[in-house]
Amino acid sequence: MDKNKGGTVLLVxxxxxxxxxxxxEVRALAQQIxxxxxxxxxxxxxxxxxxxxxxxxxxxxxxxxxxxxxVLVMPxxxxxxxxxVEDIPAELDKARAKHPDAEIELCGYxxxxxxxxxxxxxxxxxxxAG
Amino acid sequence: MDKNKGGTVLLVxxxxxxxxxxxxEVRALAQQIxxxxxxxxxxxxxxxxxxxxxxxxxxxxxxxxxxxxxVLVMPxxxxxxxxxVEDIPAELDKARAKHPDAEIELCGYxxxxxxxxxxxxxxxxxxxAG
Lengths: 130, 130
Hints:
The structure is a homodimer. Chain A is of the alpha/beta class. Chain A contains 4 helices and 4 strands, in the order E-H-E-H-E-H-E-H.
């Protein structure tokens, strides 16, 4: 393992579910992102706030162990609720305390992105309406 | 009210939250969709599976009362869990029993759409990574 090689890992963070198929959906999503043309992340991994593994701090640690020196955490959440505003930042603080030399950054949450309204309209049209 | 005028209402259905600001986010999203260029829905409304008003059957009723004869229900959910697979269809059955002459259709859920991986990669790039 070459700690000097650097690079950024994208860590997609979902709530986590008792239903393992929902957690698998998130892991599959991370893999899909990695296969997209022009994706330059060292890796795209999944982590969970609760109910599933890895936790966010463990997901950050695993990402850094692969040789990256930067982790971008993306909340796969739809609303700006307590999980996005308080819980995920608190988990990032735990990860930063374990890895003081790494860059651990937090991205905006999915539901807050300006492209969501258009995507929903597109989905409605694909269904044959609107 | 002219019941013959027809038209389709898009009903965006979210889980619902005790945090009213999260419910307001969904209502604002519905309004944003309605202002998009080329949006031909009679109206775009929001409804909630639980914890917030209107319920899905009430949201369908209100949509039909405005004169539409068709309601397209769009699950604003990320995973194909019990809410998407069982609970929302059960609410639609209640709405159909109340409005047997209306077309009440269910669209795919947001997280299952093929554009989501690319949107997450775009968000990461906008943050300055990947």
